[in-house]
Amino acid sequence: MEITPREKRDRRKAFIAPFFLILIWSTGFIAARAVADHADPNLFLTFRFLSAAAVFALLALHCAWPKGRQFVMHLLTGMLMNGVYLAASWWAVANGLAAGVMSLIGGLQPLFTALIFALVLRKSIGLRSWAGLAVGFIGVALVLSPRLTGIDVGNMALLPILMGFGSIVALTIGIMVQKSSLAAADLRAAGAIQHLGAAIVTGALAAVMGSGAWDNSPTLWFSLLWSAGVLSLGGTALFIWMVRHGDLTRITALMLLVPPAAALQAYALFGEALSLVQLAGFALTLLGVAIVQRIRLLRRSRLAE
């Protein structure tokens, strides 16, 4: 059967989108590292979310906006997926949870998604997907192994650990809700509302417990521009588009590749060493994701224009 031009475009989107997503989201680790000494984390996140919300709103001026209950649901989803997730994970690291441990906890997110599908929603997750997720997670652990060496988890405070896990649960719930009736909303309007919701969370935290630190350095402003323009406008919008139109287990499995990609960027930008164990972990993560994907990243029947 002859392939139509639209099908060709859809296939190109399905092939290219994951590469852009991994590349964009992995820079979040670099941005967080750059901001650490220049601004209060929640204040920075608030400006990031408000900036992204404003641009999304401008792009959606002539679009139909969610109203009533749908508006509230988008607001709450943004609070969870962006606000609670980033605020809780950054707080956990700032209060004693090793960054390597937080990254490893983040690697559990695809497994959390699969568990919710299997235990709560009673949907079947194939053995091949479980195996791929497990292999991918082991690969992530190997990539992060230098950052985990010498860490005594037993001596870590319980609250930061719980906050780390809580942040991933919030992200998982926020992602899964995107597959509901919220998927009918225009992506630009949804982005504006959801980033506003995230800003409410981080803004409240910045007001209550923030230091107000903001040094106006070029590094800080560039990080804000990158985080709002590339991570939020580009990365988050692309991820939500893929979640709306793809298989959720396969899409979230791509997140396993974010820590390895960040390690490669740290090697290129900051000269951080890459061991053979880490390279083996990177290969193992790729293998795990490939097993889950089964070559097909998006279901063609549900691709959007």
Topology:
Layout: H1 5-35, H2 41-59, H3 69-94, H4 99-106, H5 109-120, H6 127-143, H7 145-148, H8 158-177, H9 187-209, H10 218-245, H11 248-253, H12 258-270, H13 276-293
Helix pairs in contact: 1-10, 1-12, 2-9, 2-10, 3-8, 3-9, 5-8, 6-13, 9-10
Average pLDDT number? 87
Query: Count of DSSP helices?
Result: 13
**Main beta sheet: strand number and arrangement?**
none
Distance between the termini: 21 Å
Percent range of helical residues = over 70%
Q: How many individual domains?
A: 1
* Multimeric organization: single chain
What low-confidence regions span 5 or more consecutive residues with pLDDT below 50?
295-305
Decide which structural class fits the backbone: mainly alpha
Rg, Å, rounded: 19 Å
Relative strand content: under 5%
Order of helices and strands: HHHHHHHHHHHHH
What's the β-strand tally?
0
Shape, please?
A: globular
Main location: membrane
Protein name: DMT family transporter
Family: Belongs to the EamA transporter family.
Keywords: Cell membrane, Membrane, Transmembrane, Transmembrane helix
